[in-house]
Specification:
Blueprint (H helix, E strand, L loop, with lengths): L2 H4 L1 E4 L2 E4 L9 E3 L3 H5 L10 H10 L5 E11 L6 E7 L2 E2 L11 E10 L6 H14 L17 H14 L23 H4 L14 E6 L4 E8 L2 H19 L11 E2 L3 H36 L3 E8 L1 E6 L2 E6 L1 E3 L19 E7 L3 E7 L9 E3 L8 H7 L2 H11 L2 E2 L16 H10 L3 E14 L3
Parallel strand pairs: 3-4, 18-19
Antiparallel strand pairs: 1-2, 2-3, 4-5, 5-13, 6-10, 7-9, 7-11, 8-9, 8-19, 12-13, 14-17, 15-16, 16-19
Helix pairs in contact: 4-8, 5-8, 7-8
Length: 450
């Protein structure tokens, strides 16, 4: 019997994988029939290897619930697009390497006609790339907010609060660091200069226009080399502690009350605070560039993570490539600006097909108050470079009027590399997890060149 044949359909857009093999709990998979089984060569269906990783996610000590989002695909240890709730156990593999990676949405007073001139959009790209450092290993640019070593110590402990920003626009002001005496690994500390830098891969800054013609800017980046080196440190230390063979990161778990668990939790939270501050510093520079080039105003609408472990209702909830989705009336939103609506959920698709802003429905409780973090990859980077044609890809971008900072469109980040965002969003709405409030079309995109 195949993995797909083991699934039990709970409702439209919702399947359950009953406990099998080493699973301690059932797993809830939020997938449409189209995303699960596929529909022609453009929609290949879910890989069987995803199910092996779902079994792994549901087999850790302390696991109490597992949910898988519609953009899921193979990752390391657990699928990207997985939520794991645990009692007393921390799962580094379910936070991943880019701890705290996430999104910022900037709202502007501009309309589509204000940014219609391609030459001015090009000028905006040039202004942004002068203000922020872009690319793998890049450190912050000269024109950004300066962060001294003393200020850095505040940033990694108090995140947005250290920058004077509050919870009205951030998922959390900061993630508490419970022990200030914890030592930051040297290799992570050496990367402190990357605060305020965009990074490469799928990280971006993108100007977008919604269905009403309103202009937005979306940012995607994380904790950079600082968080990566913290994660790597604990994958190695955790494997040694458990007596696992080297390169066994997929199976590392930590007792939250152990010395190693407490150290990971504090440094994980520092990386999360770094990531929030990183996005906000970049956001300041992007707003300034936009106001200089186009006039009008720009400000942070919301900031949220999608690679993070958080404490919720007495449990640890690890979201790896998944976004928190608290609906209206959720206790965690009490006395916040989002109490009556739920907080915004920021979903990047691709630089060809656009992105979306969602708000959670009451049904999000079925998915551990989580939804997808994007549309989900369908082509690996290597495969994309082999099968996609540069001229055809560049022509599509030009025809769509999307301007890039790179000379050519990065093939491994182009539209065909990702699942159809509308299929993914349809599944989220079908399952009653969230509703789409805005669909956003890209008009200019800044990518980190690898």
């Amino acid at each position: 019997m195949s993995w797909k044949q083991r699934l039990e359909k709970a409702a439209e857009g919702h399947y359950v994988l009953p406990k099998t093999k080493s699973m301690r709990v059932d797993a809830d998979l939020f997938l449409s029939d189209k995303l699960l089984w596929g529909e022609g060569p453009e929609v290949p269906g879910l890989e069987d290897t995803v199910f092996d990783q779902v079994v792994n996610a549901a087999s850790f000590p302390g696991v109490t619930r597992v949910a898988v989002t519609p953009d899921c695909h193979v990752g390391y240890g657990v699928p990207i697009g997985t939520v794991v709730e645990t009692d007393g156990v921390l799962l580094p593999t379910a936070a991943g390497y880019d701890i705290g990676c996430g999104m910022v949405q900037l709202q502007t007073s501009l309309m589509a006609e204000d940014v219609a001139d391609p030459a001015k959009r090009r000028q905006w790209i040039d202004q942004v790339t002068r203000r922020i450092a872009v690319g793998v290993g890049a450190s912050r640019a000269q024109h950004q907010r300066k962060v001294s070593d003393r200020s850095f110590a505040e940033v990694v402990r108090h995140g947005a609060k250290a920058l004077g920003r509050g919870s009205a626009v951030t998922e959390r002001d900061f993630i508490p660091v419970e022990d200030d005496r914890v030592d930051i690994p040297d290799r992570a500390y050496e990367k402190r200069g990357q605060l305020g830098s965009l990074g490469g891969g799928n990280h971006f800054t993108e100007m977008q226009v919604d269905e009403s013609g309103r202009v937005w800017v979306m940012l995607h980046t994380g904790s950079r080399g600082f968080g990566w080196n913290i994660a790597k440190h604990f994958f190695v230390q955790g494997a040694a502690h458990l007596g696992l063979k080297s390169r066994s990161e997929d199976f590392v778990w930590l007792d939250a009350d152990s010395a190693l668990g407490r150290e990971y939790w504090n440094l994980h939270n520092m990386a999360a605070n770094f990531a929030v501050a990183n996005r906000l510093i970049i956001g300041e520079a992007v707003c300034a560039a936009l106001e200089d080039v186009f006039g009008g105003t720009a400000s942070v609408y919301y900031e949220i993570s999608h690679n993070l472990i958080q404490k919720e209702a007495g449990r640890f909830v690890a979201r790896k490539g998944a976004t928190r989705a608290f609906p209206a009336g959720h206790p965690a939103l009490k006395r916040t600006a989002w109490e009556g609506t739920g907080h915004p959920i920021l979903i990047p698709g691709s630089m060809e097909t656009g992105s979306a802003i969602l708000f959670a429905e009451e049904g999000a409780s079925k998915s551990i108050y989580s939804v997808n973090h994007g549309s989900g990859r369908r082509l690996s980077r290597g495969e994309a470079r082999r099968v996609l044609k540069q001229d055809a890809t560049d022509a599509r971008m030009a025809e769509a009027g999307i301007i890039l900072n790179t000379r050519q469109t990065p093939l491994d980040e182009s539209g065909p590399c990702y699942k159809n965002l509308d299929d993914v969003l349809e599944t989220v709405e079908m399952a009653g997890l969230a509703r789409v409030a805005h669909r956003l079309k890209p008009v200019a995109c800044i990518k980190g060149a690898d």
